[in-house]
Amino acid sequence: MKKFLISFGAILVLIGAGGIVNHISMTFKAVQEEQEMYGGSLEFMMLQLSGSMGPYLTLIIGGGIIIALSAFLHEYQKHNELNSQLIQVLSEQLSTKEVIEKSAPQSKPDNLKLNSDSTSTSDLDETEQKKDERLYWNG
C-alpha cells in the first residue's frame, strides 16, 4: 500500500511538473506570435495565460500530499511496532518480577510461622495484611 501511494504521488507530481513546463513553453510561443501580430506588452499577455496553470499546480500539490501521507503512515507503523515491542518487554519483565515476588514472600511466612510460636497472633495478622496488600496491588 505504501509503495503504491508513493508511486501514485510521484506520478502525479511528475505529470504536474511536465504539464507546467509544457504550458510555459506553449505560453511563450503563443505570446511571441501574438506580440508579432498585435504588439502589446509581454508581461500582460503572460499574466493572462498564467491562470490556466491551476490543474498542474493541483496535481503537484495533491501528489505531494499523497507522498507525505504515505511517509506519515510508514512512520506511524514503525511507532506502533516499537510500542508493541516495548509493551511485550515490559510485560515479560513484570511477569518475572511477579514470579520472584511470589516465590520470596511464600518462603518468609512459612519461616515466620515456624519460628513464631512464641509471637502473638497480631504479628501474623499484620504479615497477612501486608501479603494481601501486595497481592491486591499486583493483582
Please characterize this protein's 3D structure.
The chain is mainly alpha-helical. 91% of the residues lie in helices and 0% in strands. It contains 4 helices and no strands. Helix 1 (2-38) runs antiparallel to helix 2 (42-50). The relative contact order is 0.09.
CA(first)-CA(last) distance: 42 Å
The total of helices stands at 4
Beta content comes to under 5%
Name the helix and strand elements from N-terminus to C-terminus, one letter apiece.
HHHH
- Weakly predicted, low-confidence segments: 107-119
SS content category:
mainly alpha
Radius of gyration: 37 Å
Shape: rod-shaped
Largest sheet: none
The percent range for helix content is over 70%
Number of strands: 0
- What's the overall average pLDDT, rounded? 78
Keywords, separated by commas or semicolons:
single chain, 139 residues, mainly alpha, 4 helices
How do the strands and helices of this protein lay out in sequence?
Elements: H1 2-38, H2 42-50, H3 54-115, H4 121-138
Helix pairs in contact: 1-2, 1-3, 3-4
Condensed summary:
The chain has 4 helices and no strands. With 139 residues, it is mostly helical.
